[in-house]
Amino acid sequence: MSLFVASLNSGSNGNCYYVGNDDEAILIDAGISCRETETRLKRLGLDIHKIKAIFISHEHADHISGVCVLVKKYNLPLYITPRTLQNSNILPCPEMIRNFDNAIPVVIGNLRILAFQKLHDAADPHSFVVSNGNVFVGVFTDIGAVCPQVIHHFKSCNAVFLESNYDEEMLETGHYPYHLKKRISGGKGHISNREAFNLFKEYKSKTLSHLFLSHLSNENNSPALVEKLFEKAAGETEIIIASRFKETALYNIKSAETTTITEVLRPEMAPYFPIKKSVRRIKVFKNEFQLSLFE
């Protein structure tokens, strides 16, 4: 069993995450245009027709701006809570709307999608854990605070998209007005680098092979700062910074219970360019080999 995952975009300008197996996939949020979604999937060598549904975490524009066109063009079911739908400007075909409930799994083929409530300044916000057999991937962004629910699910995941939104000093001394600073850091906005790092350091499991640091602020954070912080405690976990400008590579997440080889390709290499197989590094997990190939 395995799951293929990628961030198509992550940040206040748009959020969209791909999670799927060999036969079916879903998108968590659709905050970039349909055209950009198509382009980025194509660069990753992914067939958009494998996407069987879109799940919406909450109604903010950076999570829903591309959803209407995607739903209509590809006739995709849209999983959204009634309160989120009511507070959004989403107007897809009514017959494509599906509801989901807190802590009640939705099954799509071999994918199991579990939603749980999170702390965020939205009508009915949720995070997600997507599983395929014994492989679990979490999408934990816009979480406001590290609540017991986040800790519980974080400990069970093989890979996590975890927000690391702002550096506390940069936010405090930056140009944002006071009310916006309080909105971000007040417990229902976003979590800081420090909060994300403490969660990772204290609760990561031995099976956490990949951590995608997501939803970085453009004004109050920097990828280099985040990478430096997390790399010092990464251990066997690969740290990936999810960009606000382009897709990540496509990663194949597998359970550490079996011996596997995972190839990680740079997006621009697939599917248009041949792979020059020079090995930059090999990471050895407890029962798993992680092989990364680069030009």
Provide structural commentary:
This protein has 295 residues and is α/β, with parallel strands linked by helices. It has one domain (2-255): Metallo-beta-lactamase, Chain A (4-Layer Sandwich), CATH 3.60.15.10. It has nine helices and 17 strands. The chain is globular and about 45 Å long.
Order of helix and strand elements from N to C terminus: EEEHEHHEHEEEEEHEHHHEHEEEEE
Strand order of the largest sheet: 6-5-4-3-2-1-14
Number of strand elements? 17
CATH superfamily caption: Ribonuclease Z/Hydroxyacylglutathione hydrolase-like
| Low confidence ranges | 258-295
Total number of helical segments? 9
Helix content: 10-25%
Question: What is CATH's topology name?
Answer: Metallo-beta-lactamase, Chain A
Please state the CA-atom Rg, rounded to the nearest Å.
18 Å
The class by helix and strand makeup works out as alpha/beta
Q: Cα distance, first to last residue?
A: 28 Å
Largest sheet: 7 strands, mixed
Q: What's the overall geometry?
A: globular
CATH architecture: 4-Layer Sandwich
* CATH class call: Alpha Beta
What brief labels describe this structure?
295 residues; alpha/beta; Metallo-beta-lactamase, Chain A; 28% strand; disordered C terminus
Describe, in short, the structure shown.
The protein is α/β, with parallel strands linked by helices. Helices cover 23% and strands 28% of the residues. It has a single domain, classed as Ribonuclease Z/Hydroxyacylglutathione hydrolase-like (Metallo-beta-lactamase, Chain A, 4-Layer Sandwich).
